Amino acid sequence: MSVGLLLITHRPLAGDLLAVATEILGGRPTGIEALEVINDTPCEDLVAAGLRCAARLDQGDGVLILTDLFGATPANVALVLLERLERARVLAGVNLPMLLRALNYAALDLETVAEKAAQGARDGIRLCVAAGEQRTTPARRIQVA
After folding, report:
1. Phi/psi at 70 (nearest 5 deg)?
2. pTM for the complete prediction?
3. Which of 71, 82, 117, 138 could form an S-S bond across to 102 if both were Cys, CB 3.0 to 4.6 Å?
4. How far is Cα 77 from Cα 66, in angstroms, rounded to an integer?
5. Rounded mean pLDDT of 46-55?
């Protein structure tokens, strides 16, 4: 078994992230679904759709829900699901490194998959500056020539 992954984002981000991950991995991953939020969709409808997705995805190890913007409708729906599902975790701020890490570690337990995905997201963020350019930002810098 493995952890199911549910992407809940503003349209078309979830589908686009899944398409890119499919391209990178050389095939569509299993155990993942995308739920894209369209403006003006009632939250009750989104929660119901999310619960149906989670029921299909949870094979006993739980569901990791990846969402885009904390405080926005997709994340709010994810938080409602978190309260209603027995085995779930939510990560907001989804990016491609987060998704790929979650897919690569989905066979581990839910807590570990969530931690690996969060670390993948953090590690995937880099401030790139030109060679010789000085910045005072504490983010990791990569010099490009």
Report:
1. -60, 135
2. 0.90
3. 117
4. 11
5. 98
